[in-house]
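User: Fold this, then the next.

Assistant: Folding the first:
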Amino acid sequence: RELVEHALANARDALGRELAVSATQQTLLAGLAERFDIAETPGRIEVYDNSHIMGTNAVGAMIVAGPDGFIKGQYRKFNIRSEDLTPGDDYAMMREVLGRRFSRLVRENGPRGGQTKDDEGVGPWPDLVLIDGGRGQLSVAAETLAGLGISDLPLIGVAKGPDRDAGRE
């Protein structure tokens, strides 16, 4: 009996912690929507970044977050395939990654807006796209999506702050 009571107390504590984290996450997402004037609280956020080693081994990465936090099973890595890419060309890498991701999304799920969401409120289409980079990367992202006929997807660029001071984005 003591073992069952102890397990029940542990379960209640774990549920309490999970509910607190979920409430905090919802508050953060609502604040994000308000700060950037997004019509609805985002259910699915995709974040993109590119990386290379001195111009070689170029890869792009997509991480995904939802109402309950990061969705690690939906992270993706994109090996950069373009052979005519200038080593270290972040803009070209961003074009390739977003072009591949969103052309496939259009092909497999149809146009944005007609999406259905799962029980957690997350659909196949992102409600918000974050780009690791400044105005240049953001412009490339917007051009790439526009080229695919996608014009209503909120995009935000996150760049280092003044004097490239991390923490002042």
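Now the next one, as you asked:
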Amino acid sequence: MKYLAQKILLLVLLTATLLQGNSFRKTGTVGYTFLELPAMARQAALGDAVGAVADGGAVLSLFANPGVLGLQNGWHFGAEYSPWLAEIQHNAVGLVIPAGLIGNFGISVNMVDFGKMTHTGTEGHVLGTYTAQSLALGITYSRRLTDKFSWGIRLNGIREEIHTFISQNVLVDMGIYYLTGFNSLRIAGYINHFGVDGKFIRDSFKMPTALRLGIAYDLWNTPRYRLTTAVELSHTADNLERLHVALEQLILKRFYVRSAFKTPVNEDPWSFGVGIHWDKIRVDAGVIPFGRFPAVYSFGIQVTP
């Protein structure tokens, strides 16, 4: 376990070095940008600072840090719905499958439907309408190596379709999760959307690779109340480094209030959300104010049979 952890950490550091090659803003230089949208309501409410969040994070780990999945128990199913800007529909579904000593498996679907758009000819004549969709089908495997350390890997099959044109690729996510033993402090490191360049028609483009390092800590924890803070540093292939800071307050062991701030961001630095955990059902809602644009809402449910 020790040598495996060292290899994973080395891989994280090497990737960080590669991503640090340019420090200027690189917006618009990658494809498959739908993968950068928060797939779950809790993820949106916490400003994407979820890499070190394990409590109730079984389905969440299928879209963020795969290393968290190894410490989860039992079956979990989750579904998310988010009507985005410009009538874009964002939906996600995840299933966690326990496999005993082998580890845990997960299946995830992340889909964005851009709706119908007007198809015009070269002279401006309307020829009808066409559609555009983006889809990521993921298979996650994660294993607990000790009661404090787990690692995970995910393969994502990506497909984007605009009218009759199609782009496809396979991306890899890798992550680790570690309970330090110092009170409730836990740390995480993970890489998302790593892969070779994609191609659309005759043009190639980079992947939206992101390196994330995060910590989480319970500022206080009683039998009925808990306040958790999460801090995460992200480095994406198409933007500057960002700092994500989130708070999640658990009330009476059932109700959640969440808020987060990330910087530097132009339109959506703040996010908020609420949730309720009742028996084997978790329901979450999140909102991201977009400044000059309408706010984006997301809703999700997670069930443990």
